[in-house]
Design a protein that fits this description.
Elements: E1 2-4, H1 11-22, H2 26-35, H3 40-71, H4 85-92, H5 94-106, E2 121-123, H6 147-181, H7 184-199, H8 205-209, H9 217-225, H10 230-237, H11 243-259, H12 265-270, H13 275-286, E3 295-296, H14 299-303, E4 308-310, H15 312-321, H16 337-350, E5 355-356, H17 360-372, H18 377-384
Parallel strand pairs: 1-2, 4-5
Antiparallel strand pairs: 3-4
Helix pairs in contact: 1-6, 3-5, 3-6, 4-6, 7-11, 15-17, 15-18
């Protein structure tokens, strides 16, 4: 008869280890020492094994805690079409699972191996004394044993307590994932936020998707024809799609409306939720020379044949008016610096007039000064309105 330490990498396997670990009591160890005839060396070997896997459990449980903080709040994952939630979690604590099974194996009765036909392989959890509740040995507590045994009792108890905590976290995450899958409101919030995050990573659409047209009219027509309720496909695709899929899907969904206003790909990513304002901002950028914006004359501008350099603070007001980031009252030093920086780069690409744009660093310096003075983004955005005609004004929000 041979003992198998293989564990199914699914929720069934997770529950089996959890249930076996929950059965642990110190008396099980003492019973095993007696019934399995542990000598001093065997106790010492077992103690070394427990210490080794306690260190590995410390590392894996720490990483699992970090993973658990963000996983539920991320719509797309990597390779989750191949692995269930339970399998993914068990892979993350794979060394711990292997170690716990080896510890269970240490406390199995000694048997002769039968080679050839007739040899049986049995699950180690069914025979390990650690998962038994019947105590047959002459037990008088741990005090009658040498210090080494008492040390083993303390450290193996700590290991199983930590193991149960880690496995409980896995079970909780599986339950939270299932609850989230059936909570349409929260799922939609997670999807929208995940789209925002993944689109911020795109510096240049061509760098990601190439020159090939991202979505054809035929595909859009097919999507409209076979459209499913959003609640249905959100639940089905949650944690079953990778980030590459999310990037493409987010781009298609967010830019579809923007294209109807004649915005290009980069503008569509900036004003995904307010394409009407984006269209008017696009026109403002192309006609900055006609807004009578304050500027200063400089040697650099003269050398380039320009009239001057736009005022940095006015450019900051335009950034806030663009609506690419929050315009709420001041509660953070920077509302959404990546999108603001992206917008300013877009201005530099689109504007081709009689003035020089100040550097992004000088705009950031003005922003810091105003934030230090407790000036809100809303107020900054309002300051740019005086340069914009009424016909061009819209609500600068996303």
């Amino acid at each position: 008869m041979l003992y198998s330490t293989i564990v199914q990498r699914d929720e069934t396997g997770l529950n089996m280890i959890y249930d076996a670990a929950r059965e642990f009591e110190q008396e099980n160890v003492l019973e095993a020492i007696v019934s399995c005839r542990f000598d001093y060396n065997k106790v010492q070997q077992t103690l070394f094994l427990v210490r080794e896997y306690q260190q590995r459990l410390n590392r894996e449980s720490f990483q699992l805690n970090i993973f658990s903080e963000n996983f539920i709040e991320s719509y797309a994952t990597d390779n989750n079409k191949c692995f269930t939630m339970a399998a993914k979690l068990l892979r993350r604590i794979g060394t711990t699972v292997t170690g716990s099974m080896k510890i269970f194996r240490k406390f199995c009765p000694i048997v002769r191996r039968q080679y050839g036909v007739g040899g049986r392989v049995v699950p180690v959890l069914d025979y390990s004394r650690l998962s038994f509740r019947q105590f047959h040995g002459q037990l008088f507590g741990a005090d009658v044993y040498v210090d080494l045994v008492q040390t083993l009792l303390l450290e193996i108890s700590a290991f199983f307590h930590h193991l149960l905590t880690t496995l409980q976290l896995c079970k909780d995450m599986i339950r939270r994932e299932e609850l989230t899958r059936h909570d349409y409101k929260r799922l939609k919030e997670i999807f929208e936020r995940s789209c925002d995050e993944v689109l911020l990573t795109v510096r240049d659409v061509k760098d990601v998707f190439g020159e090939v047209k991202l979505v054809s009219e035929e595909e859009l027509a097919e999507r409209r024809k076979n459209a499913r309720p959003m609640s249905e496909w959100l639940a089905k695709d949650y944690h079953n799609r990778d980030k590459k899929w999310l990037l493409r899907e987010a781009y298609i969904l967010r830019t579809n409306a923007a294209r109807q206003y004649g915005l290009d790909d980069e503008a569509a990513l900036l004003w995904t939720k307010n394409p009407e304002h984006g269209k008017k901002m696009d026109d403002i950028i192309k006609n900055l020379d006609h807004l009578n914006l304050p500027f200063k004359r400089s040697k650099k501008a003269t050398e380039q044949g320009k009239l001057g350099t736009f005022d940095s603070r006015t450019m900051l007001y335009m950034v806030k008016y663009s609506g690419v980031s929050s315009v709420n009252p001041v509660d953070k030093k920077v509302d959404n610096e990546p999108k603001e920086r992206r917008f300013y780069r877009y201005v530099g690409e689109k504007y081709d007039g009689q003035y020089i744009l100040p550097s992004w660093q000088s705009v950031c310096s003005e922003r810091k000064n105003l934030y230090d003075q407790k000036v809100s983004s809303t107020w900054m955005a309002s300051q740019f309105k005086q340069y914009v005609s009424e016909s061009q004004q819209t609500t600068p929000s996303i």
